[in-house]
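fyi for ur records
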Amino acid sequence: MRDVDVVIISTGRAASTAVYQYLDTACGLNLPKNKEPHYWCDIYKFGGLHSVLKDIHISSSTDYMDIYSRSRIVVDASVGCFFCLDEVIKRLKQEGQAPKIVFLYRDPVSRALSLFNEERKKGSTDASDVMADIKRDREPGLWW
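which gave:
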């Protein structure tokens, strides 16, 4: 397996897409469109996954490396890694990987408001305000 150069570990809505796209463009890395293969963590242990996550998840090391076949370096920005940090570090070590790790965080209040506004745009919530949205039932651990 090719070396993994960078793993971006972030909460959702913390600008990982912007950082990934900037690195790709500014450095001419030719990174894959699938920035979140979730190879390093078992996302299926969480219930209620969005179908998009199931579509982009890669479980085979060959398939994982194939998405980087034209990239100058391997940069993984799977948001799920934030929620499985111990598992991710353990798997990276087991596979002899020692990537640079970039942590991205966001103030929880602005993150919650950003997620609420995004869900409203997509029609994923009918809550009248962010507090009502936070209180609604969700699968445990998946308020990404």
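The mean pLDDT is 91. thats all i got for now
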